[in-house]
Amino acid sequence: PKPQCQDHSMEHFNCAFNFSCRAGMPVMASCAIASNVTCSGERTFNITHRCAYCYQLPAHQHTCKAKDPCVTGAATPVVHECTAVRDVLCLPPRSFQKLSTCDFTSGKSWRVATILSVVLGGFGADRFYLGHVGWGALKLFSFGGLGLWALTDAVLVSLSYIKPADGSAYYESNPKAPSSRIASSVTLPDPWHSASSCH
Fold it and tell me: Which end of the chain is less packed: N or C, by CB atoms within 10 Å?
C-alpha cells in the first residue's frame, strides 16, 4: 500500500508561509505534498508551526555535520552544515550553516563513568577513569568525602556535568545531558528567503 501523504517528512512539502508572523508564536502554513511524491490520502494540508526560521530552531530540532575536518581539542570554531529534522516545519531555507566548536572524544564512556561513580565512587574510581587523578586520590583517601562527595559526583556524572579531564565529550550520547552536541554556535549570515516553498 502507498504511504499516507501526511506521514511524509516536511522536506517533501511545498508550503506557503506567512513571513510576517510574530516570532515564536504559532502560525499556520498552507502546504501541499510535492507532485513527484507518490502517496495516498489528502495532498494539501494546513499545518500549524512555530514562527521561526529553520536556523533559529533549538539544537535538538536540527542535525549538523562539520564541513571541514574537526581537530581534536581545537578551540577554533568550524563551519557546520545543518538541516532541520524531517518532522519539523520552519521558515525556509531548511538547510543552513552554523559556526560551532567541535566535540571530540578520547573514548571515555558516559555509561561506564556513571556505573563506576555509583558502585565505586567512594574509592574515586570514576575520577580516575575520567583522568581527574588528583581529585580521584583525594576522594580515595577521604572515602568519598564520607559518602557525601561520592553521592554528589554520582549525580553530576550521570547528568554529564563532570566530563573527561581533557575536555573531550563522551563517545556515546547521554539522553540526560543538559547541553546539545553542537554548542556555542553562531549562525552565519544567510539571506532570508522570501520564496514560499520548502526545500
Answer: N
The dihedral built from the CA positions of residue 181, 187, 191 and 195, taken in this order, carries a sign that is positive
Q: Quick one: pLDDT at residue 152?
A: 92
Strands 44-50, 26-33: pairing kind: antiparallel
Instruction: Check residue 173 and give its pLDDT.
Output: 55
Closest Cα to residue 124, out of 156, 159, 107, 149? 149
Please answer whether residues 98 and 182 qualify as being in contact, where contact means their C-beta atoms are separated by less than 8 angstroms: yes
* Residue 52 to residue 21: CA distance in whole angstroms: 9
Alpha helix stretches (DSSP H) within 68-162: 110-120, 125-129, 133-141, 143-146, 148-158
Kindly state the cell numbers that stand for 24: 515564536
- Mean pLDDT, consecutive 10-residue stretches, the chain (199 aa), reads 86 93 94 92 92 90 76 67 90 89 72 91 91 90 86 90 78 49 38 35
Spatial distance between the Cα atoms of 92 and 54, rounded to a whole number of angstroms:
6
What is the rounded distance in angstroms from the CA atom of residue 98 to the CA atom of residue 113? Answer: 31
For residue 16, what is the DSSP state?
A: E
pLDDT of residue 109: 86
Q: Cα(160)–Cα(176) distance, rounded to whole angstroms?
A: 8
* Closest-CA residue to 130 (of 161, 103, 99): 161
